[in-house]
Amino acid sequence: MSAPLPQTTSDTPIHALVVGAGFAGLYMLHRLRQSGLSAAVVERAPDVGGTWFWNRYPGARCDVESLQYSYSWDEDLQQDWTWTERFATQPEILRYINHVAERFDLRRDITFDTAVTSATYDEAARQWCLTTDAGPELHCRYLITAVGCLSSANLPAIAGIDSYEGTTYRTSLWPHEGVDLTGQRVGLIGTGSSSIQASPELASQAAELVVFQRTPNFSVPARNQPLTEEKIRYWKENYSDLRREARETTRSGAIYDLPVKSAIGTDPAEIRTELEARWEKGGANFAYAYNDLIVTQEANDIAAEFVRDKIRETVKDPATAEALCPKDYPIFAKRICVDSDYYETFNRDNVRLVDLRKMPIDRITPTGLKTSDAAFDFDVLIYATGFDAITGTLTRMNITGAGGRKLAEKWAEGPKAYLGLMTAGFPNLFMITGPGSPSVLSNMIVSIEQHVDFIHDLLVDLREKGQSSVDADPQAEEDWAAHVTEVAHTTLYPRAASWYMGANIPGKPRVFMPYIGVDRYRAKCDAIARAGYSGFHTAP
Ligand code: FAD
Ligand code: NAP
């Protein structure tokens, strides 16, 4: 069911218009409704789900445990819903999102198959005017983007890309009816999390899988398994405390076995035992073995070498193993990948790794791909080449703020946004998981819930005070951006050419975009709210 577009005019704007119907947009709609603020959602997909609607490639799962990668805002919901696996599959997560949409009757205010193509601020009326690809203009007092950090795919400009005559897929736009790769020769470009999850599944179906790797990634085993009744019961009985712990006391928004000491100064044999135990337990818990792993290069090297040793132990062909070992950036400086039999996949007879650092792609050909050394023919070519992350979807929305200033121009040298929620000069525009918020460095649902609650509370505050516009103070924004950078540079994160830095998109400014520390961020936001929303300017 898709709602008709809300009927709005500049004289009768809707209070809040939310763009996007993933985890963020759905919760934002629910929250606004709870306070009686008129709201509607516009979504370009034909249904809810966002990331989990689009990314249906085989093997897609969450990398945060299902019991934690779920909404915490409704006690009955978390008691009634039962996850089946430690790391839920994409279909199960999508079923959950659909369940939420139905349970809270959200679809009646969501218009699907409609993309927002531009948004322009009307300074005199203090409201936004939006165009969509569905026709009529929309007018709203507040515009809230819930467009996702990983929702604009990056299709690299490889020579000859349009000449390919076989079938092309992208992991981020996988056909909903599924794909039968039986007997097919498959080429896979990219070795990020998507590829690492997909490769074992693709290899088990295809006649031949050739993985083209430019940069190897660090990956830890998921050790996925069905959830036991005991574990589910424990979480359900303790949800409120556990959720609070994740929100208020962790850097990542997820509960792990947190470190109690530094690797530096600890006996190497003890470190090995600890890392081994975490490797066996599985998941991103491995990253939290010691408190200096993402801070001190020497400590980081220990964990990195441990993983490289695991790769060498697992992959039988020494040259392939060596090519799979990342060596030129710190482990954990890119989001750690969590896999099921990724490295083992390279022991299969039908799988081959091509190291693009040794033989770069020359061009895509009508029948496959040519590197500097060899030509490959495929029936199917798959791009797992990532996203124009964090800012890409926002800058593509053609947003124009006060004084005719374009968002894409304002952010040309790098994005700045106060708390990652508002960018000065774009009044009444809120961004959920915008640049400068913890977003992608966290269990994203925890961050999304916090951002939504903050925006909601601010909108209620404005209503109570009879204010109709709000903007970020330019100096507060500058200070926040400096703080985001300063915190990042106390860690090893900026040493990797990652998408956190915009490094995967040619020409994108190299700025570390997310904020490190869910706990610290929440405390700062709470203090700002208590201080009457310091750093925000309001007007009647
Ligand atoms: P999205 O889910 O991206 O939703 C944004 C929506 O906005 C989309 O439906 C899009 O169609 C819509 N939209 C965008 N622009 C427009 C427009 N102009 N007009 C109309 N609609 C528009 N995070 C984790 O914390 N843990 C994980 O395990 C995890 N796994 C992931 C796996 C994959 C394959 C990917 C790609 C990401 C993963 N993430 C994970 C990050 C994930 O994106 C977030 O966890 C979360 O789902 C984001 O929700 P969202 O609502 O903010 O954005
Ligand atoms: P990604 O990590 O950005 O990986 C993209 C891959 O494509 C990289 O290996 C990149 O190589 C390669 N690539 C890009 N352009 C190329 C070119 N021209 N030639 C050859 N190779 C090229 O993207 P992703 O795998 O989709 O993951 C993005 C993020 O989504 C993750 O970090 C994670 O946050 C989230 N995610 C999570 C999960 C999960 O486990 N739950 C699964 C998927 C995604 P270079 O590194 O050399 O640029």
UniProtKB/TrEMBL annotation:
Keyword annotations: FAD, Flavoprotein, Monooxygenase, NADP, Oxidoreductase
Stored InterPro entries: FAD-binding_Monooxygenases, FAD/NAD-bd_sf
UniProt keyword Membrane, yes or no: no
Cofactor: FAD
The keyword Isomerase belongs to this UniProt entry's keyword annotation: no
Molecular functions (GO terms): monooxygenase activity
Family: Belongs to the FAD-binding monooxygenase family.
PANTHER family recorded: L-ORNITHINE N(5)-MONOOXYGENASE-RELATED
Protein name: FAD/NAD(P)-binding domain-containing protein
Species this protein is from: marine sediment metagenome
Lineage: unclassified sequences, metagenomes, ecological metagenomes
